[in-house]
Amino acid sequence: MTERPNGETVPTPTFVMSFDSIVADAECRNHTFLEILKNGMKKHTEQQQQSNEKTAVQPPTN
To answer: At residue 26, does pLDDT exceed 90?
Structure first.
């Protein structure tokens, strides 16, 4: 139980995990986060390239 500043007591859950579980969870989260970043950067780069292609000056055709 945890006591709030106003004196109220609230239940406080406690979780027990092994160190290996914590490390495995962190590795999974880091991998997922990196994949999200890579996909976001790739999408942004592709959009920039498409935008640059649309605004590029085309040479005159004869």
So the answer is: yes
Burial of 27 (0-12, 13-18, 19+ CB in 10 A): exposed
Q: Confidence class of residue 1 from pLDDT cuts 50, 70 and 90? A: confident
Beta bridge partners of 3: 9
**58 falls in which pLDDT band (50, 70, 90)?**
low
Expressed in angstroms, the distance from the first to the final Cα of the chain is 83
Residues in CB range of 4: below 8 A, 6 or more apart: 10
Residue tagged 């139980």 (tokens)? 1
